[in-house]
Amino acid sequence: MMFWKKQTREQREEKNAKHIPLAKYTEGGRIATLMGLIHILLIALTITASVSKRGQAGIYVGVMMLLVMVSAAVGFVIGINSFRETDKFFRYSYIGTIMNASIWIGILGLYLTYV
């Protein structure tokens, strides 16, 4: 019993034709997703700094988190505006918008909880 078949040249070319290049995705969505990944990295950096200083990291950690929160709001707006682009795929728009919104809500929730 054979579980696979050898693909013909036409089948391979058809599969390669289905490949979606990155240019077909929204530019704002790609920017919002990249911003979200940078925000996650910065949040991890601030948490590491705060833990390594045993909670005495000072105002620098707070300022960095405030900047991340403002930047996440900007990333959210960019992600929302990327849905206006026509004839593009919206995968990165969804990912970037949700990522930035959850980061913004998470930081705001931390602020409201501890202040």
Morphology call = elongated
Would you tell me the overall average pLDDT? 87
Distance between the termini: 67 Å
The beta-strand count equals: 0
Main beta sheet, described?
Answer: none
* Number of continuous helical runs: 4
Order of helices and strands: HHHH
Question: Runs with pLDDT <50, length 5+?
Answer: none
Structural class: mainly alpha
Quick description:
The protein has helices at 9-17, 27-52, 59-81, 91-114.
Structure description:
It is a single chain. This protein has 115 residues and is an all-alpha fold. The chain is 71% helix and 0% strand. The chain is built from 4 helices and no strands. Helix 2 (27-52) packs antiparallel against helix 3 (59-81), helix 2 runs parallel beside helix 4 (91-114) and helix 3 (59-81) runs antiparallel to helix 4 (91-114). The chain is elongated. The model has no long low-confidence stretch (mean pLDDT 87).
